[in-house]
Design a protein that fits this description.
Radius of gyration: 17 Å
Strand content: under 5%
Number of helices: 12
Structural class: mainly alpha
Low-confidence stretches: none
Order of helices and strands: HHHHHHHHHHHH
Helix content: over 70%
Number of strands: 0
Mean pLDDT: 81
Largest sheet: none
Shape: globular
C-alpha cells in the first residue's frame, strides 16, 4: 500500500513497508548511538541513501543526530572535554558549507557510493585497531574538525576522523563518549544550518524524520542504559561488522 503524500513529496513511490523499514533502521541506529556516543549516522546513512536517495537521507540523519539524542546531552555536557571539543567544532563550522555544496551538486548515485565507501573505510580502520598517535592540540583538532565537517555536509557522516582522534586520547570511556556525543549533535546542527541556508532540506525530511524520531530516541535511551552493563568493546565490534555488511550491500545494490 502506497503512501501518496510522502510519494508526492519525494517524487518517487514510497510504500508503507519502506517507511517502516526506515523507522526500524532509525531504531537500530539509536541503540548504537546510546551505547557508543557515535555510530548512528554510519548505521543509518548507507541504507537510507539507498532507500530514499542522498538528498533526503542526509538531512533526515542530521535532524535525528541533532535533536533526537536530547536525553544524552545534559550529562554529556558535564563530562565532555570542552577544551578539546572547541577547536574541532570550529573547524567543522568552517568546512560544513563545502560539504553541503557537494551534496547539492554531485550525482545522487555517486553520493550514495561515497557514503558507503566512507563507512567501509572507517570500519576497516577500526577493525584493524589503528588509532591516532599524536597529542590533543588545537591545530590538530581544527584540521580534523574541518575534514569531518566537509564529510558531514556531503554525506551526514562527519565522525570518523574525530572519533579516531578522541579514542586515542587519555580520557576514560565515559568522558570520550560524552565528548563524541556533543560533537555529533552540535556538528549535525551546523550541517542542518548549512543545508537550510542553501534551501536544501526537503519538506519530506521533516515529516519522515518526525516519524522516525520516537524509536530513535527510545533506542538512544535504551543504549545509554546498556552502556553501563554491556562490554563496550564487544558491542563496538558487532556494530562495525554491521556497518561493513550494510555498506557493502549498498555498493552492490
Amino acid at each position: 500500500m502506497d503512501t501518496p503524500t510522502l510519494s508526492a513529496l519525494l517524487g518517487q513511490p514510497l510504500s508503507t513497508s519502506e517507511v517502516l523499514l526506515a523507522i526500524a533502521i532509525a531504531a537500530a541506529a539509536g541503540v548504537v548511538r546510546g551505547v557508543t556516543g557515535f555510530g548512528a549516522a554510519m548505521v543509518m546513512a548507507p541504507p537510507l541513501a539507498l532507500l530514499l536517495g542522498p538528498a533526503l537521507a542526509v538531512p533526515i540523519v542530521l535532524l535525528l543526530e541533532a535533536f533526537a539524542a536530547a536525553p544524552m546531552l545534559p550529562q554529556a555536557s558535564r563530562l565532555a572535554r570542552w577544551k578539546v571539543l572547541g577547536p574541532i567544532l570550529g573547524g567543522a563550522a568552517l568546512c560544513v558549507p563545502l560539504g553541503t555544496a557537494l551534496l547539492t551538486t554531485l550525482d545522487p548515485q555517486v553520493t550514495r557510493r561515497v557514503i558507503a565507501f566512507v563507512v567501509l573505510g572507517f570500519g576497516v580502520v577500526l577493525l584493524a585497531g589503528l588509532r591516532w598517535s599524536g597529542r590533543y592540540r588545537p591545530a590538530t583538532g581544527l584540521a580534523l574538525g574541518g575534514f569531518g565537517g566537509a564529510m558531514l555536509g556531503a554525506t551526514s557522516i562527519g565522525g570518523p576522523p574525530v572519533i579516531l582522534y578522541l579514542l586515542a586520547g587519555p580520557d576514560d570511556a565515559a568522558t570520550t563518549r560524552a565528548t563524541l556525543t556533543l560533537y555529533v549533535a552540535l556538528s549535525a546542527s551546523l550541517g542542518l544550518a548549512a543545508l537550510a541556508w542553501r534551501d536544501a532540506i526537503p519538506l519530506a525530511a521533516g515529516g519522515l524524520g518526525l516519524a522516525m524520531a520516537p524509536l530513535f530516541m527510545l533506542g538512544v535511551v535504551f543504549g545509554g542504559r546498556v552502556f553501563a552493563r554491556l562490554s563496550e568493546q564487544r558491542f563496538r565490534r558487532v556494530t562495525i561488522w554491521l556497518m561493513l555488511a550494510v555498506s557493502a550491500w549498498v555498493l552492490v545494490a
